[in-house]
Amino acid sequence: MNFYLGIDFGTSGARAVVVDEQGCIQAEGRFPFEKSEVSELANSWQKALFSLLEGIPQELRREIRAIAINGTSSTVLLCDAAGKPVDTPLLYNDARGAVVIEELRSIAPANHTVLSATSSLTKLMWMSQLPSFAQAKYFLHQADWLAFLLHGQLGITDYHNALKLGYDVEELKYPKWLENLKIKIHLPRVVTPGTPIAELRAEIADQFEFRRDSMVCAGTTDSIAAFLASGAKLPGEAVTSLGSTLVLKLLSDTRVEDSRYGIYSHRFGDLWLTGGASNTGGAVLQQFFTKAELESLSCEIDSSKVSELDYYPLLKAGERFPINDSNLLPRLEPRPTSNVEFLHGLLESIARIEARGYELLQELGAERLTQVYTAGGGAVNPTWTAIRERILQVPMVQSVNMEAAYGTALLAMRGVG
Ligand code: ADP
């Protein structure tokens, strides 16, 4: 038998999923991150990776044909010539690079995706001013470094991770303007996600009793891995993530970019994965209700009835997509005495923002929306799904799977054909 291993390094933990050739799950493992010292971050990732490998049932390990890893987008680190981190990695949400944005603005084209405090390129510029930079040879993303631990090749990434480093995913090359940065570092060679890179290092294969010819493939980012897991694959198919925030992703034949709304597109084979992220979402629901209340109150909502309550649920002022207004105030009034009615108004208002988001993507040139898969904590709420179906007027379809690790296992399988 041939099995395929996907490993997801997410925000709160790492997960592993082993699938067979039919995409059926054969084994799963979890490694929750503990609060570790920042200086121990890279070590703790390595520990998580090896502990996940160890946790795979022994009889499956010998049958694993390919492995891929996804990391959180824009989590990056600098390594020396041997691949040893020269300083602590910078996490996806680390915004200390804000101080170099003005300098970057003079180099990168106006409104480019890299012009954000948390982009990989901003982080590289910020790190290049630290004393530890003198020992740095390679700049890597989290997924690249973890894959290096398995295959031993330094300086390789995929074009999903490389987007926020400024890599031109249309031309498939680093743009000319990047040369003006004058940072002395090896930028990673960029390959298609899933590309076979090299066999598992012999020591690792022997230590964990994997087969020696297990192929380690190029990875991706966590959110693209979750998209892959859903099963969406045709233009017009979308995945809405109802997590703490509301994130839309729509597959399209055409690339859509609009920095005013934070809209950008990832290359997705011959298609484009276009999307935007709103500040509304589950975090606002959580402000008013517990998980148990969300479940019980939702059961009492008549999803076929239109709620007259017109909210714009936000935790604080400011929105980017689908309305670009940094001063937009949360609108959560009037609050009815009935909690069922209040929640109905909230769920329906978020669904309207979702619908407006897809409308905006289509106005800017994306494919016509045909069906929507759902991921994230809100995906389990059938009342919300019914409300969304009424408002979006397209079928809501069940995701094949919602785990990024599952999507990454599929990437490994496709990578080796
Ligand atoms: P994150 O984006 O932080 O990874 P998750 O995908 O885990 O978030 O989703 C968590 C969110 O899901 C919470 O903010 C919560 O409000 C929401 N949520 C959980 N259960 C329900 C439910 N039954 N109905 C609607 N929303 C829910």
Automatic annotation (TrEMBL):
Family the UniProt entry places it in: Belongs to the FGGY kinase family.
The Gene Ontology CC terms held by the record are: cytosol
Extract the coiled-coil ranges from the record.
none
Its EC top class is transferase
CDD domains, from UniProt? ASKHA_NBD_FGGY_SePSK_AtXK1-like
The organism of origin for this protein: Brasilonema sennae CENA114
Keywords tagged on the record:
ATP-binding, Kinase, Nucleotide-binding, Transferase
Boundaries of every Carbohydrate kinase FGGY C-terminal domain copy:
240-414
Gene3D superfamilies, A to Z = 3.30.420.40
GO BP annotations of the record are: xylulose metabolic process
Catalytic reaction list: D-ribulose + ATP = D-ribulose 5-phosphate + ADP + H(+)
Q: Does the keyword Coiled coil apply?
A: no
Q: What name has this protein been given in UniProt?
A: D-ribulose kinase
For this protein's source organism, the top of the classification is: Bacteria, Bacillati, Cyanobacteriota, Cyanophyceae, Nostocales
The entry lists its GO molecular-function terms as: ATP binding; D-ribulokinase activity; D-xylulokinase activity
Carbohydrate kinase FGGY N-terminal domain residues are 4-228
